[in-house]
Specification:
about 170 residues, Trna Endonuclease, Chain: A, domain 1, about 30% helix, globular, disordered N terminus, disordered C terminus, endonuclease activity, TnsA_N, TnsA endonuclease N-terminal domain-containing protein, endonuclease
């Protein structure tokens, strides 16, 4: 007989987890990117994702014991680019078990190969160093394989679906 394994508290449509308002809304929900919501056990709420690579990152965050909680599109930052001031919204903010906060950008390798994207990430990285903010870029190489590989995606998904049960 199966039991409900959910450990959080849900109140109708609103969970009792951490409230979060994204810094940026999706401008155009149409297009080829798969957008959705993921029921996060760590956060006790639905987490929005834009793309399958971000969903892979969420599975990684959910299963990592070093990550206490995370949120999507946490803040909009302003960084210098030559004589211009530009806006940037990271994909995720992680709170590690050590208390450290890390901002994360999730990008496909094909996107990082573009000169304009490299320039933007270089400017953002320099700004983060100056402001002493931890920042990293996750790619398919970080995960080992992409969501395009069903064996990998299936194994990560199945780990997340079943919470750790202590052995008797």
């Amino acid at each position: 007989m199966s039991k409900n394994l959910w450990q959080g508290t849900w109140r109708g449509r609103q969970p009792a987890g951490n409230a979060h308002k994204r810094a940026r809304k999706v401008i155009s929900p149409s297009g080829g990117i798969v957008r959705g919501k993921f029921p996060s056990r760590k956060n006790g709420r639905m987490v929005h994702h834009e793309g399958l690579l971000e969903l892979d990152a969420i599975y990684l965050f959910e299963t990592s014991p070093n990550i206490v909680k995370y949120c999507e599109q946490p803040v909009t930052l302003h960084y210098p680019d030559g004589d211009r001031l530009r806006r940037y919204t990271p994909d995720f903010e992680l709170v590690l078990a050590t208390g450290e906060i890390v901002l994360v950008e999730v990008k496909p390798v094909s996107s990082i190969e573009h000169r304009d994207v490299q320039h933007k990430l270089d400017c953002v990285t320099k700004h983060m160093r100056r402001s002493e903010t931890a920042f990293t870029v996750l790619t398919v190489k970080t995960f080992g394989k992409s969501h395009a590989y069903p064996i990998y995606a299936g194994s990560i998904t199945s780990v997340s679906e079943f919470p750790h049960r202590p052995t008797p």
